[in-house]
């Protein structure tokens, strides 16, 4: 599970307005000093969301060596803010107001880029994310873009339920997901995976089942 640290009340409240995610947890800090303490005490966050309007630019520059990705949010367009975002190597900038779907898409995008390449599935099958392949000793299957995205989001919740809402946000990325299109996508990708790899959890979503703990390699 990914961890997000948020120094922006609006963004934190927006996350809270949606359903909880199996993919990540998000924590709020109220002050810049708390932000700094939390980062350097634990240093285990995958993504930071920092409001440019409430942090000193000089303090912001100390984040340039962060391993975690950083998204800079701001209430009003600012060239200076963009310059600082570039200087610290921010992954993205986010102008408010923003809706929950777009926010989740941006977060999923940057978390997916940190996701490792090879995920081992059941029965000797592997998912090669960047190559869009499912491989085993006997066969190899090329994945469509939507199949790859679906397997990415399911693989973050191995042996746990991934909700319809999470699938729609990550795979369809703002477009409408019909029940028929989702069922067709599931049907097609099941043909490329070991038998019974994807289980339907009626009324909730789907689950990628792996008989042994998936191993992820860089």
Explain what the structure shows:
- With 218 residues, the protein is of the alpha/beta class.
- It has two domains: 2-114, Response regulator (Rossmann fold); 118-217, Arc Repressor Mutant, subunit A (Orthogonal Bundle), CATH 1.10.10.
- Helices cover 36% and strands 23% of the residues.
- It has helices at 9-16, 32-42, 57-60, 79-87, 100-114, 145-155, 164-172, 179-190; strands at 2-7, 24-28, 47-51, 69-74, 92-95, 118-120, 126-128, 133-135, 140-142, 161-163, 198-201, 205-208, 216-217.
- The strands form three sheets. Strands 2-1-3-4-5 form a five-stranded parallel beta sheet, with helices on both faces. A five-stranded antiparallel beta sheet has the order 9-8-7-6-13, with helices on one face.
- Strand 1, helix 1 and strand 2 form a beta-alpha-beta unit.
- Helix 6 (145-155) crosses helix 7 (164-172) and helix 6 (145-155) packs across helix 8.
- The longest helix has 15 residues, at 100-114.
- The radius of gyration is 19 Å and the shape is elongated.
- The model is unreliable at 213-218 (pLDDT under 50).
What is the gist of this entry?
The protein is an alpha/beta fold and 218 residues long.
